[in-house]
Design brief:
5-stranded mixed sheet, about 40% helix, Nucleotidyltransferase, domain 5, 8 helices, alpha/beta
């Protein structure tokens, strides 16, 4: 199965072309440019360089959340547009699970974290089995203090991965937890991880159509929270 994957959930942006588990090519940028400017040109360049057409791609995969609301919308919109023209199946991949794939070979517990602001992180925990992942909790937005308490109960060393790893490292280390930063080249979200997550979704028959593809934000946007707060205030 040939997979085209996109990752635009945070500051970095990447695309990848894979044949099942094998990475054919990947493009990665972390230069501060908006994903609306970089993502589709990266896809086009990647396919052209590989001598591959969109028609030859079997599955379109995208990091669907959690993450930056704007970044997720850009990625999902790009995936829908590419898939719709030829009715390609889509994979809506967990951003956290996708980034954990970078450390699946370690045999250790992996703590995937992204800065969710408001004293929270987006988080999920996994066990790297050597050739795969075992999920230890669902994707969630959790207070850093609550995550620290959960990791204390686990008592196992943790590898921190994701763009929130640096944010969490000092706080968790100060509480006496055995936490380690993933090496820089494996720490950030990558489209290869999205492709590997998508392959498992395909094997589990958990794909969707372009029409059904949607972001999974895991919590309300600031605008939605403010609207609900105004509605509550009016009702009092």
């Amino acid at each position: 199965m040939k997979l085209l994957a996109m990752e635009s959930s945070a500051t970095a942006c990447s695309t990848a072309l894979c044949e099942d588990e094998t990475l054919i090519a990947q493009s990665f940028q972390n230069n501060g440019l908006t994903h609306s400017r970089t993502l589709l040109p990266m896809v086009s360049s990647l396919l052209e360089t590989c001598g591959t057409t969109l028609h030859e791609v079997d599955l379109i995969a995208v990091a669907a959340g959690p993450g930056s609301f704007t970044g997720l919308r850009i990625g999902v919109a790009a995936a829908k547009g590419l898939a719709w023209t030829e009715d390609k199946p889509c994979a809506a991949c967990s951003t956290l699970e996708s980034m954990a794939w970078n450390l699946a070979h370690t045999g250790m517990e992996i703590c995937a974290v992204m800065d969710a602001r408001r004293n929270q992180v987006y988080n999920a925990r996994f066990l790297g089995t050597g050739d795969g992942l075992t999920r230890l909790c669902p994707d969630r937005a959790i207070a850093l203090a609550d995550l620290a308490a959960e990791l204390k109960k686990s008592g196992n060393p943790q590898i921190l991965v994701g763009d929130g790893a640096n944010l969490c490292y000092t706080t968790l280390k100060e509480q006496g937890l055995d936490v380690r930063l993933a090496p820089p080249h494996l720490r950030y979200q990558s489209a290869w991880g999205v492709a590997r997550c998508a392959l498992d979704l395909a094997r589990a028959q958990q794909l969707t159509s372009a029409a059904g593809l949607a972001p999974n934000y895991h919590r309300l946007s600031q605008a939605e929270r403010e609207r609900l707060e105004k509605e509550r205030n009016k009702g009092e």
